[in-house]
TrEMBL record:
<protein>
    <recommendedName>
        <fullName>Glutamine-dependent NAD(+) synthetase</fullName>
        <ecNumber>6.3.5.1</ecNumber>
    </recommendedName>
</protein>
<dbReference type="GO" id="GO:0009435">
    <property type="term" value="P:NAD+ biosynthetic process"/>
</dbReference>
<dbReference type="InterPro" id="IPR036526">
    <property type="entry name" value="C-N_Hydrolase_sf"/>
</dbReference>
<comment type="similarity">
    <text>In the C-terminal section; belongs to the NAD synthetase family.</text>
</comment>
<keyword id="KW-0436">Ligase</keyword>
<dbReference type="GO" id="GO:0005737">
    <property type="term" value="C:cytoplasm"/>
</dbReference>
<dbReference type="InterPro" id="IPR003694">
    <property type="entry name" value="NAD_synthase"/>
</dbReference>
<dbReference type="InterPro" id="IPR022310">
    <property type="entry name" value="NAD/GMP_synthase"/>
</dbReference>
<dbReference type="GO" id="GO:0003952">
    <property type="term" value="F:NAD+ synthase (glutamine-hydrolyzing) activity"/>
</dbReference>
<dbReference type="Pfam" id="PF02540">
    <property type="entry name" value="NAD_synthase"/>
</dbReference>
<comment type="pathway">
    <text>Cofactor biosynthesis; NAD(+) biosynthesis; NAD(+) from deamido-NAD(+) (L-Gln route): step 1/1.</text>
</comment>
<feature type="region of interest" description="Disordered">
    <location>
        <begin position="746"/>
        <end position="771"/>
    </location>
</feature>
<dbReference type="Pfam" id="PF00795">
    <property type="entry name" value="CN_hydrolase"/>
</dbReference>
<dbReference type="GO" id="GO:0005524">
    <property type="term" value="F:ATP binding"/>
</dbReference>
<keyword id="KW-0067">ATP-binding</keyword>
<dbReference type="InterPro" id="IPR014445">
    <property type="entry name" value="Gln-dep_NAD_synthase"/>
</dbReference>
<dbReference type="InterPro" id="IPR003010">
    <property type="entry name" value="C-N_Hydrolase"/>
</dbReference>
Length: 771
């Protein structure tokens, strides 16, 4: 037996905080050595933090990385243990994303990343060069102060592996595992038995199984795969979800947490490398391909890593993989992200405009979950979480949080900002939920402020806008201006709704900055937004209303997933009122309530939230324009109209296909191809009309692959010809070819026109759903 003890880790790094990052690296190495491990793997770019972005272009960032590495090398941290440490390196005029392989106070090899992540949330080609020289290792001259400190002038640099006296070890960095031709296959044929993958992988709903299946697939023909990842919010929109793991011969034997408040989490396993050699020797095709392999350069290391046979040694056994359901992911991912953001921002808490609707209630529940996680970690003995909670909550005399509701009372304000258009039902639901969570809750009427704005407008223009329905406007009545308001135009109606929404944003920020002062608390509170990904996609929000906040934990989560989360949270988080909130129809409550009319989001939008999820996935994930989207919907209409419809299932990884099947089945029984075409055109019209709102979207937790977030993820223009004349005409022609029907095509709609382009002015658009 060749016994080998390995350690990999989740680290909660913070971009550009070198003190914090170095501290966590040292802690992980210390814990690995204490556990008896001889290999320690850390995350990609762990010295700097993965999310530095354009800071990688600064020479200081590289210089500080070498300074931190020097501090590790001159101490005893690497004595007797191989450490893989991620940092940027300049070689000549080129900047590389590298793993520095160190042992016994020397650098054995520098392995630059060969295939860079450059899609979705990733822009590595903006900051780094991909290493393309695969045939030989280059000689890299170390910086003078490093060379002097460790008495080493140069180090092998490039693609290769380290040949120890008893095994071979190699790095495979993050994205390289997911490329069509993966380095580990070639390295395995060259005798490498242990693969180290340093990663910076973010959380996305239903994504973890893809990652773990890749680890297992990499070793099914024999091998040990170590995976390390960041965990937490390192300063941006992404939450890195840990799940460091060790896999042997296709089976997971160790797995770290996916969501945790810990800064350092170590995963340790003991393996028998003879099991790897035995499986490879048993596989005939592996033997044949190894005999004619392409040679990969290597570095000889005069050390042994394995322990000899020991009767008392215990090997790590295969384990059941821990997967969270999507509802748990929504609770724990954004909850952990919010805690990191709060403790690192210097804020004293959060303030949330709580409408009693599904979206803001979901955010409130996530903050409540955050408080529960904090109290749980303190009870488990995490001193860092305890210290942060005492500082943020302003605990004195040795007190600390022991109850999540008591903690919420200290760090969480909720505010119901009602008007005469608000219902008693939503006001009551907001109050009940706030009591369940423990937040400091306020009930505020903003009718007087709305009336003041309208009076000012009337003074300036001589006109006063009216809602589009014939109603009694009680505020105006009370002030004695007029006795009744007749039906107004759509422009007036929209303006009146937007006034309410924008007043709520201003009031929320005022309360967040001044309420701590009122309650004799130092610091400030951060305002939380609560618009979901579907509202962003459709633009169903008012520009600069209370969707404009400091951060938004649900901005990339679909309405369908949020409704499932509310049902789950009502039971598992103990907030039973969420069940009633989930059952209520979504409404903005920005128009007057009457006996024969109530405002509903899906009616206002002209489409359902389920339809929006399908449109979003087809637009972003499958990259379909208007014509291709119509074809997709139309084909599914014919393929599935005669079979049992698929039920929407939030646990299905192919959720977009399931939803499209279900959606088009229902369409097929009620809609003609002409009507399907009109639905697709209606979506693209309002998507493009409101695209400008994405330029000022509140920074949101990224959780969904069809997010329309403009600043980092979904890079499309914000000025469109909203009539899509070429594309819509092609759709109409396709409809005519199918059934001969003529679909009326409006060359230009008056709604939202601006010159010849049909683009609404900045700030216009649909009101926000909820407060």
């Amino acid at each position: 037996m060749r016994l080998l003890k390995l350690a990999t880790c989740n680290l909660n790094q913070w971009a550009m905080d070198f003190n914090c990052n170095l501290k966590h690296i040292k802690e992980s190495i210390t814990e690995a050595k204490q556990a008896g491990a001889v290999i320690r793997l850390g995350p990609e770019l762990e010295v700097t933090g993965y999310g530095c972005e354009d800071h990688f272009l600064e020479l200081d960032t590289v210089t500080h990385s070498w300074e931190c590495l020097k501090e590790i090398l001159v101490g005893d941290w690497t004595d007797g243990i191989l450490c893989s440490i991620g940092m940027p390196v300049l070689k000549g005029s080129e900047r590389y994303n590298c793993q520095i392989l160190c042992m016994n106070r020397k650098i054995l090899m520098i392995r630059p990343k060969m295939w860079l992540a450059n899609d979705g949330n990733y822009r590595e080609l903006r900051w780094f060069t991909a290493w393309k020289h695969r045939d030989q290792l280059h000689d890299f001259v170390l910086p003078p102060d490093i060379s002097e400190a460790i008495s080493q002038k140069s180090v092998p640099f490039g693609y290769g592996f380290i040949q120890f006296q008893d095994t071979a070890v190699a790095a495979e960095v993050c994205e390289e595992l997911f490329t069509p031709v993966r380095p580990h296959d070639e390295l395995a044929l060259n005798g490498v038995e242990v693969f180290m993958n340093a990663s910076g992988s973010h959380h996305q709903l239903r994504k973890l199984d893809i990652r773990l299946e890749a680890f297992m697939g990499a070793t099914t023909r024999g091998g040990v795969y170590m995976y390390s990842n960041h965990q937490g919010c390192d300063g941006g929109r992404l939450y890195y979800d840990g799940c460091s793991a060790i896999v042997v011969n296709g089976e997971v034997i160790a797995q770290g947490s996916q969501f945790s408040l810990k800064d350092v989490e170590l995963v340790v396993a003991q393996v028998d490398l003879d099991a790897v050699a035995s499986l490879r020797g048993f596989t005939s095709s592996f033997q044949e391909q190894a005999s004619c392999k392409t040679s990969v350069p290597s570095v000889a290391a005069p050390y042994s890593l394995c322990q000899p046979f020991n009767l008392k040694a215990t090997l790590s056994s295969p384990m059941k993989i821990n997967y969270h359901c999507p509802e748990e992911e929504i609770a724990f991912g954004p909850g952990c992200w919010l805690w990191d953001y709060l403790r690192r921002s210097g804020a004293s808490g959060y303030l949330l405009p709580l409408s009693g609707g599904a979206d803001s209630s979901s955010v409130a529940a996530i903050v409540g979950c955050m408080c529960q996680l904090v109290v749980k970690e303190i009870a488990n003995g995490d001193e860092q979480v305890k210290a942060d909670a005492m500082r943020i909550g302003h605990y004195t005399d040795g007190q600390f949080p022991t109850d999540s509701k008591e903690l919420a009372k200290r760090i969480f304000y909720t505010v119901y900002m009602g008007t005469e258009n608000s219902s008693d039902a939503t006001r009551t639901r907001a109050k009940v939920l706030a009591d369940e969570i423990g937040s400091w809750h306020l009930n505020v009427s903003i009718d007087g402020v709305v009336s003041a704005f309208l009076s000012l407008f009337q003074t300036l223009t001589g006109k006063r806008p009216c809602y589009k329905h014939c109603v009694i406007y009680s505020v105006i009545l009370k002030l004695g201006f007029i006795s009744q308001v007749d039906g107004g135009s759509n422009i007036e109606n929209l303006g009146l709704q937007n006034i309410q929404a924008r007043i709520r944003m201003v009031l929320a920020f005022m309360l967040a900055s001044l309420l701590p002062w009122v309650h004799n608390k130092p610091g400030f509170y951060l305002v939380l937004g609560s618009s979901n990904v579907d509202e962003g996609l459709r633009g169903y929000l008012t520009k600069y209303d209370c969707s404009s906040a400091d951060i938004n934990p649900i901005g990339s989560i679909s309405k369908m997933d949020l409704r499932s989360f509310l049902k789950w949270a009502a039971k598992h988080l103990g907030y039973s009122s969420l069940a009633e909130i989930e059952a209520a129809p979504p409404t903005a409550e920005l128009e007057p309530i009457r006996s024969n009319y109530s405002q509903l989001d899906e009616v206002d939008m002209g489409m359902t939230y389920e339809e929006l999820s399908v449109y979003g996935r087809l637009r972003k994930i499958y990259r379909l324009g208007p014509v291709s989207m119509f074809k997709a919907c139309f084909l599914f209409h014919f393929l599935y109209q005669e079979i049992t419809p698929f039920r929407y299932n939030t646990l299905t990884t192919e959720v977009s296909v399931v939803m499209l099947q279900n959606l088009c089945f229902r369409w097929g029984s009620t809609l003609t191809p002409s009507e399907v075409a009109e639905k697709v055109k209606h979506f693209f019209k309002y998507y493009s009309i409101n695209r400008h709102k994405m330029t000022v979207l509140t920074p949101s937790y990224h959780a969904e692959s069809y997010s329309p977030e403009d600043n980092r993820f979904d890079l499309r223009q914000f000025l469109y010809n909203v009539r899509w004349p070429y594309q819509f005409r092609k759709i109409d022609k396709l409809v005519e070819e199918v059934n001969g029907d003529k679909v009326a095509f409006e060359e230009g709609s008056q709604e939202g026109k601006s010159g010849g382009m049909g683009v609404v002015a900045a700030g216009a658009g649909d009101p926000k759903a909820g407060l």
